[in-house]
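Title: Comparing notes on inverse folding

I've been comparing how different people in this forum approach sequence design from structure. To keep things fair, I'm posting one structure and asking everyone to reply with a full sequence. Here's the target:
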């Protein structure tokens, strides 16, 4: 199998992924996964699609991650990995969709409105 590319997004984070046959090494911005995401919860989020399909030690994944915070980056990476796995084997799409890994989360920060301190917060009302 030659390499497969995919992109995942979440909030302001963008993850570009290259998946090749290998031994299960995930490299993010030229750093290993456990170095880039020290939190075991974020490592779990990134590995969810691979664990669901039981192919943790089957592919080497090279990632270019940009923008957003660490949670958004982890979820963008999860989406990118899921999309790449579907390109490799389209039969896996229904399993990944059932787990919710194929859906791009549309929630983002609401814009600040003029004449207000934040998106929904109002300045204090004074009757007199």
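Reply #1:
Here's my take.
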């Amino acid at each position: 199998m030659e390499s497969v590319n995919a992109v995942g997004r979440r909030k302001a984070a963008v993850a570009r992924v290259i998946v090749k046959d290998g031994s299960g090494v995930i490299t993010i911005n030229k750093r290993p996964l456990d170095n880039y995401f020290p939190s075991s919860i974020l490592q779990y989020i990134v590995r969810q699609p691979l664990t669901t399909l039981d192919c943790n030690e089957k592919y080497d994944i090279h990632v270019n991650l940009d923008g957003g915070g660490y949670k958004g980056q982890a979820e963008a990476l999860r989406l990118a990995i899921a999309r790449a796995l579907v390109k490799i084997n389209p039969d896996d799409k229904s399993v990944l969709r059932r787990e919710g890994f194929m859906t791009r989360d549309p929630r983002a920060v609401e814009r600040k409105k003029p004449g207000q301190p934040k998106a929904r917060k109002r300045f204090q009302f004074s009757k007199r």
